[in-house]
Design brief:
This protein has 309 residues and is of the alpha/beta class. It is built from ten helices and ten strands. The protein has helices at residues 22-33, 45-57, 79-89, 117-141, 157-162, 180-202, 227-233, 240-252, 277-283, 293-305; strands spanning 13-17, 37-42, 65-70, 95-97, 149-154, 207-212, 217-218, 238-239, 264-266, 270-271. The strands form two sheets. The chain has an eight-stranded mixed β-sheet with strand order 3-2-1-4-5-6-9-10, sandwiched between helices. Helix 1 (22-33) packs across helix 8 (240-252), helix 3 packs parallel to helix 4 and helix 6 (180-202) crosses helix 10. The longest helix has 25 residues, at 117-141. The two termini are 35 Å apart. 49% of the residues are buried.
Length: 309
């Protein structure tokens, strides 16, 4: 799905975390140009306003609306005020794009609440944001076709390539590995777990929750990585807009429905043809013949965020 075949989004409301740069900025631009009302969620008002000005300067025939929604995913105390700000203005939310992420920060980096920074930003912040927005999401779904209202999470090619057997060693949530690559991998696997468990909870109420790997992209995600990694991967990277096409398909395509809840979308907009069996087993509860790892991860996330709801 691209700007060439994206239908009008007039009257629909979206939130995109990390919308000030990279894939998020391109996604905000595509939605805005299709007539949507888009809330660009992020930490820096300066960066957000620069992004909004840049998007509005691009040629378009049917522009929507763009607003900044201040929130810092690495500080759980900022999430509820952001949701309160949003719900004071809006009574609907059609798609929540949990797009923002951090990768390979300096070893020992932690969030305001003391969690490993990648797990805090990529999983805990988005989990709390989603939970607090559920009343609005559910309200919107009551008046929409099944699977029209969605939550889109963001995983990584690293999950397929490098996740340990079973997806995640849950002991590493408290005994933090020294490897930042491992911590990043855990957070991206965790995003799939959160997408799947949310689909199990809300699929019967018409809400579609999926995760997606936007692709290998030329963005600022690797800004903390060793320079040699960026140099080595540069020839293999695609423009950020290609990643926005992946997210757009996950959030809006009519080719997927409620029965696809919890599934994994791959570039540039299709369902994963053959996910690893051990990862699929991790998504299922023990009662359903799986290992229950995703359910245990959800329980851990709930415990870390309950005091901020």
């Amino acid at each position: 799905m691209t700007e060439a075949n994206l239908p009008s989004q007039d009257g629909r409301v979206f939130i995109v975390t990390g919308g000030s740069s990279g894939v998020g900025l391109e996604l905000c631009s595509l939605l805005y140009q299709a007539g949507a009302k888009v809330y660009l969620a992020g930490r820096s008002q300066t960066n957000a306003q620069a992004a909004i000005s840049g998007i509005k300067a691009r040629p378009t025939t049917s522009p929507g609306e763009l607003y900044f929604l201040p929130l810092s995913l690495e500080d759980l105390t900022t999430i509820k005020p952001a949701v309160d700000t949003f719900t004071a203005k809006e009574s609907r939310l059609d798609v929540l794009f949990n797009n923002a992420g951090v990768s390979l920060p300096p070893r020992g980096s932690v969030s305001v609440q003391g969690h490993e920074l990648q797990m805090a930003t990529n999983c805990l912040g988005h989990h709390l944001l989603t939970r607090l927005l559920l009343p609005t999401i559910l309200h919107t779904a009551e008046r929409a076709n099944p699977a029209a209202v969605r939550v889109v999470w963001t995983s990584s090619i690293a999950v397929d390539a490098s996740a340990p057997k079973g997806g995640m060693n849950l002991s590493e949530l408290t005994n933090i590995p020294s490897s930042q690559q491992r911590n990043y991998l855990n957070s991206k696997t965790g995003n799939w777990f959160l997408a799947s468990t949310l689909a199990d909870q809300l699929g019967s109420r018409g809400i579609l929750s999926v995760t997606q790997n936007p692709g290998n992209l030329r963005t600022g995600l690797l800004r903390h990585a060793p320079w040699i990694l960026g140099f080595a991967t540069s020839p293999l990277l695609y423009p950020a807009r290609m990643g926005a096409y992946t997210e757009l398909w996950a959030g809006l395509s009519g080719e997927i429905g409620i029965e696809d809840g919890g599934k994994y979308v791959v570039p540039w907009g299709r369902l994963h043809p053959s996910p690893r069996p051990d990862l699929v087993a991790a998504l299922k509860t023990r009662e359903d013949g799986g290992t229950g790892v995703a359910a245990s991860f959800l329980e851990w996330c709930d415990k870390q965020t309950v005091d901020f709801q």
